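Before relying on records like the one below, remember that each one covers exactly one chain. Contacts with other chains, cofactors or solvent are not represented anywhere in the record.
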Amino acid sequence: MAPPPPNPPPANPLSIPTRGSLGNMPRFNSSLWPLDTFAGNASVGISNLMPETNGQGRRLPLLFLYKNQALPSLSLQAVIQYLDADPKKSEVLLGHEIHLRSRDGTLLRSIPIDEQGRLQLRFRENASAFWTVSFPNVPVFALQRERGESPETDLTELRGRQIWVGRTDHKDLPPIGNALPNLSPVELQMLGTSNILNNDFIRNTPAWALVFLYLLFASLSSAFLLRYGWINGGVLEFLLVSVWWETSFLLFRAASINLPIVSFTLLAIGIAGVAYAAQEWDLKPSEGNQLTLKLK
């Protein structure tokens, strides 16, 4: 943003100790802060939704660099307030997790993040099922209660809850992406808060587990291809890839575990291609130390 902002920053913005390379985090030199009369004694968070390069909104930034301080986003600040966490006792490990701790050091939440401090949002069928009330109706419903009438929405149910104010009329909002056209920016940030509070995260498969599975698949399928030919081996690989795809869908739905599909499929295609080439071409040494390659 262009400097300087009309409202000065808060006197004591809450930063979180951060470890890792800060060069990948979103960095701002200026920001628009709420008025002192509105949030003078309240903790603040940076509200900035940053779609990915393809225009999709699948990852939510949880941290921003503001004047060389790692400040929480609005979603993360909402979680900190709800859980009564202590930012000074908490820590950020970029590329791994955010550890939110209480004042006595108790671990409250471990939030997986990437190297930019972003949370991969977990979308479900009821992702937009937030209780929303149109702002002009709030005073109307309050007045109806004062008169002893039954309002359409009972505002007393909001007691003790967090209230988010934002635009949710989708026809007036710029499109974030084609994947999730029904969620406004404020609803995406609320979804991130809900993911954290419910421990509803997308967990990536550990690298060591993928290496083991890939090596096992490559060695067994290569042996089968060499023994029974690339056609029979290709049929077996097709079945194994189909099982892998179905397993990945089941694991994601049941446990939010992200099992990579594209890399496994490319591995299977590569193995089948090498087996076909090995069958169709004959590689053998000729006179001297050179190899000759000829078509069978």
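The longest helix spans residues 207-255.
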